[in-house]
């Protein structure tokens, strides 16, 4: 469910016509719906209503725009962060430090120290040594860092290899069979309050049985740790719930997910932590683009749009599908390839796809681009950094500026030892 619908033949975000945003802000541009963010935040929370004590930490990597974070903070969400930069954003958006979970396989010592100073609510340890270092930093400051140990349950998430994280050979977490011994060694350390365990097996998950298997394993571990005398009062179940990218796709809903969690975690008697990202942000955004050319091709024409792989990297990186729709469709269809202007064949969004007929100058959107869209953008090919717009009812605001290629050029320096450029003529 989202708030991108046609009214009088024109695609709107809530009450704002996308034609208006294109005119005022230009393209390409990400457009987000506040109402969709709010709705997803509420639906996910409602799905967990039978799960007892629950803490929601939005995985801000999915869409870290500070205005988006404000909306989600207002919905009562904390944050899951994976870098000092994300921590700063979450705090800047007004999310209390105590509601922030600090994940990430490569937190630096400086980031750990900063997290302790800010009063971060939970550190998710990725290796034993990180726990030792965190304890020492906290102890030296006369404080105690709350932490959980992330385990790798060795479950195949059944998603794209590049977004799977829960197999034994992945870089994340500690092997589940080694967790009890590590817990025994870490729990007594001064400066550390080791409160439980965490897992996250991957993203864009469409098969709840894989998650269920991981959760069962982590539940058994928690019970084992308790039996060994450890105080376990938190289990972090990560994120990962997938979203429909293709019209007609059916994925498990937050309610289905919540029912599974309630069933599996019954009797655990812990606070359950969640780190949803995509399910909150994915369908809350589109990438609005203009068709530059329709170029004849050998089999199908190429629709060349002004958005490219540097703006939306998912198709190039993960073979991801994003529905493409004209902003003012005329009812006709065409079979086409869709590509951007970047000089790589990988800068192709779709091949041989049945789409709304478009011509040069028409506006169109890639749907379901609210998660892992703008945040993964780059300026490759010296293109501008794509801007972001947030719509709320009949108003909208540019919540991230377009950063011109010239501005980026201005931040570069030619060292003095290089000879000055020869002036032509
Ligand atoms: N927690 C942890 C520890 C994570 O690593 C992730 C995502 C999440 C939560 C949020 O997962 P979600 O609910 O969004 O599935 N760029 C890729 C996705 C990378 C996901 C990385 N970790 C993509 O565009 O598909």
Automatic annotation (TrEMBL):
EC number: 4.1.1.20
Entry-linked Pfam families: Orn_Arg_deC_N, Orn_DAP_Arg_deC
Cofactor: pyridoxal 5'-phosphate
Identification of the protein by name: Diaminopimelate decarboxylase
NCBIfam families with a match to the protein in the record: lysA
Subunit architecture: Homodimer.
UniProt cross-references to InterPro entries, sorted A to Z: Ala_racemase/Decarboxylase_C, DAP_deCOOHase_LysA, De-COase2_C, De-COase2_CS, De-COase2_N, De-COase2_pyr-phos_BS, Orn/DAP/Arg_de-COase, PLP-binding_barrel
Domain Orn/DAP/Arg decarboxylase 2 C-terminal: 30-370
Binding positions for pyridoxal 5'-phosphate per the UniProt entry: 240, 275-278, 372
Enzyme class per UniProt: lyase
Family (UniProt): Belongs to the Orn/Lys/Arg decarboxylase class-II family. LysA subfamily.
Pathway the protein takes part in: Amino-acid biosynthesis; L-lysine biosynthesis via DAP pathway; L-lysine from DL-2,6-diaminopimelate: step 1/1
Positions where N6-(pyridoxal phosphate)lysine occurs in the chain: 61
């Amino acid at each position: 469910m989202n708030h991108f619908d046609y009214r009088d033949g024109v695609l709107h975000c809530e009450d704002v016509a996308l034609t208006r945003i294109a005119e005022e802000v230009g393209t390409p541009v990400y457009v987000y719906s506040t109402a969709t963010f709010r709705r997803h935040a509420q639906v996910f929370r409602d799905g967990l209503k039978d799960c007892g004590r629950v803490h929601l930490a939005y995985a801000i990597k999915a869409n870290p725009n500070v205005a988006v974070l404000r909306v989600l903070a207002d919905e009562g969400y904390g944050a899951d962060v994976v870098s000092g930069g994300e921590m700063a954003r979450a705090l800047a958006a007004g999310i209390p430090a105590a509601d922030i979970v600090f994940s990430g396989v490569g937190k630096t010592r400086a980031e750990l120290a900063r997290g302790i100073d800010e009063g971060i609510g939970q550190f998710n340890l990725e290796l034993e040594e990180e726990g030792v270092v965190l304890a020492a930093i906290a102890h030296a400051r006369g404080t105690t860092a709350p932490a959980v140990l992330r385990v790798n349950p060795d479950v195949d998430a059944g998603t794209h290899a590049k977004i799977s994280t829960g197999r034994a050979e992945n870089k994340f977490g500690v092997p589940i069979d080694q967790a009890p011994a590590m817990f025994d060694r870490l729990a007594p350390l001064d400066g550390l309050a080791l409160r439980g365990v965490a897992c996250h097996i991957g993203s864009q998950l469409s098969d709840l049985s894989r998650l269920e298997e991981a959760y069962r394993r982590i539940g058994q571990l928690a019970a084992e740790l308790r039996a060994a005398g450890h105080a376990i009062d938190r289990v972090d179940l990560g994120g990962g719930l997938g979203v429909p990218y293709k019209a007609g796709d059916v994925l498990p809903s937050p309610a289905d997910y919540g029912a599974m969690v309630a069933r599996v975690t019954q009797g655990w008697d812990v606070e359950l932590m969640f780190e949803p990202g995509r399910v909150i942000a994915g369908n809350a955004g589109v990438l609005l683009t203009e068709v530059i050319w329709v170029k004849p091709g050998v089999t199908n024409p190429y629709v060349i749009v002004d958005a490219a792989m540097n703006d939306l990297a998912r198709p190039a990186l993960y073979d991801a599908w994003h529905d493409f729709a004209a902003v003012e469709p005329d009812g006709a269809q065409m079979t086409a390839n869709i590509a951007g202007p970047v000089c790589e064949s990988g800068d192709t969004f779709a091949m041989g796809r049945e789409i709304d007929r478009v011509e040069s100058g028409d506006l169109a959107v890639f749907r379901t681009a609210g998660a892992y869209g703008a945040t993964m953008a780059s300026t490759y090919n010296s293109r501008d950094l794509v801007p972001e717009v947030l719509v709320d009812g009949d108003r909208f605001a540019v919540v991230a500026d377009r950063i011109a290629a010239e501005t980026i050029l201005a931040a570069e320096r030619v060292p003095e030892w290089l000879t000055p450029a020869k002036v032509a003529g």
